[in-house]
Structure prediction request, 311 residues.
Amino acid sequence: MWLLLAGNVLLVCAADATPIGCRRVPNFGKLYHVKGELSLPHSEIKEPFEAWYDLEGNRSRIDYRNGKVRTYLIGNDLDYGVIYTITPVNTATEIQAIKCFQLNGTQEGPIRPQAALPDLQGFEFEKMENYEGVLCEVWKNVTQVGHKKNTYRLWVTRPATPHRFEMVGFNTLLESHNDKYTIDYSDFSPQTESDIFIPSGGMTCEEFPDPVEEHQILANPIQDYVNTSPVSHAHRLFGPFKEKFNRQYESEKEHEERENYFIHSLRHVHSTNRAGLTYSLGINDFSDWSNAERARLRGGILIPDREKDTE
Prediction:
């Protein structure tokens, strides 16, 4: 216990409290169930999901699009854990065929439970603010790598209940806010059922199809959104894209712009494919173009590219 003088008021604070108004960093526990909706304003996409998390059991499950895609991260399977993804797939002979894919962990990269909530290490209390009629604490974290500067905010009430998570990206070279996404949470509960982590029986799981570089995003889509790093797995896929399509940009500024367009394209492709539609999208030669550039190519009409790249 320690004392804090705030104006003329003497506050008695718990030993584990932060110095700002005696507020403790929210702790959502080692076991929870939560629903959410991921919003990608650039693509005008809203993607619902439902998550179950059990840290002590070394397992998690996240369903996307009302269960159309189910991901199980089981850390105790095999030597280093396994991710199982059950998802509809379009092939040359099948439409929305339900398949199971498997990604095994390694000694260097063991599988761990995937949280649907951000790790609040490094976050600081910013202010109190109403969100949809509820007075929330706002916790903030700013991270920067190179020209990428991301500001993360979480709106939360007590006992620790998440309401909204927001990322706003600023590129210092472009001097612009070029990225944003939000997650709105609901139905948070500090408990879950144990059998929810067992994948459906009777299915044979196979390796994820090519390209190999996209396996992590296919197996664990939410990891890039709740991770508070300006350089995500999606950013690391820009290198293979440039190599495949022989990209050479005239300046560092153009490189930053094209990488930003690519990230938005990649998110749009994978989020749309999780919807279980009768067609699939894919990364192609236009994935580092802006919406305006693609619109000019199509005569001013923005049309989703439904032909998956197979090169």
Notes: The first helix runs from residue 215 to 219. The radius of gyration is 21 Å.
